Amino acid sequence: MRRLLVLCLVLTSVCASAQTYRWVDPAGRTVISDTPPPGKVKSVAKTGDAAETGDNLPFAVKKAMEAFPVTLYTSADCASECKQARDLLNGRGVPFSEKMLQSAADANELKQLVGDVFVPSVKVGNQRVRGFEAGAYDNLLDLAGYPKTAAYGSKPSGGLTPAAKPAAAP
């Protein structure tokens, strides 16, 4: 019975987490509290909520992401190979940005990068691979220090960023 009680207490304490706030008061002192700051305090930093701050990534992924950012180059007519490349990156839990070729400038950038306009292509730090070959992608990601599998509960990352909405005419 005691063990069950201890187990329940441990499980509830692990699940409990608090939002903390950090701000500088008018006297110049840094205040860290679990309650929101009073009045019109400027530059409030929220901490303690991993989902909002993006700190839910494992340390190895953060370290690799800072040193070797990953960019996937795709096009609108690339379907199966681009999907395979995205799935491989997401399966390993690699945060990546996806750049779809939409203009001549994008095509020239890719041509400078890999020597030809060929999608999918991936850039990991300063290294690049033309086309999709799972072994080559895995090799680059291994050398960069990315984990071989995604962390439990990790969400897919990367993908296309939404296009900017045009300004409404007055």
Q: State mean pLDDT (0 to 100 scale).
A: 80
3D shape = extended
Q: Biggest sheet, open or closed, and with what strands and sense?
A: 4 strands, mixed
- Give the helix/strand class: alpha+beta
Strand content: 15-25%
How many helical stretches? 6
Number of strands: 7
Helix proportion: 25-40%
Strands ordered across the widest β-sheet: 5-4-6-7
Write the layout of secondary structure elements.
Elements: H1 2-15, E1 20-24, E2 30-33, E3 45-47, H2 50-53, H3 59-67, E4 70-74, H4 80-91, E5 96-100, H5 104-114, E6 121-124, E7 127-130, H6 134-144
Parallel strand pairs: 4-5
Antiparallel strand pairs: 1-2, 1-3, 4-6, 6-7
Describe the structure.
- With 170 residues, the protein is an alpha+beta fold.
- 36% of the residues lie in helices and 18% in strands.
- It has six helices and seven strands.
- The strands form two sheets. The protein has a four-stranded mixed β-sheet with strand order 5-4-6-7, with helices on both faces. A three-stranded antiparallel β-sheet has the order 2-1-3, with no helix packed on it.
- Strand 4 (70-74), helix 4 and strand 5 (96-100) form a beta-alpha-beta unit.
- The chain is extended.
- The relative contact order is 0.14.
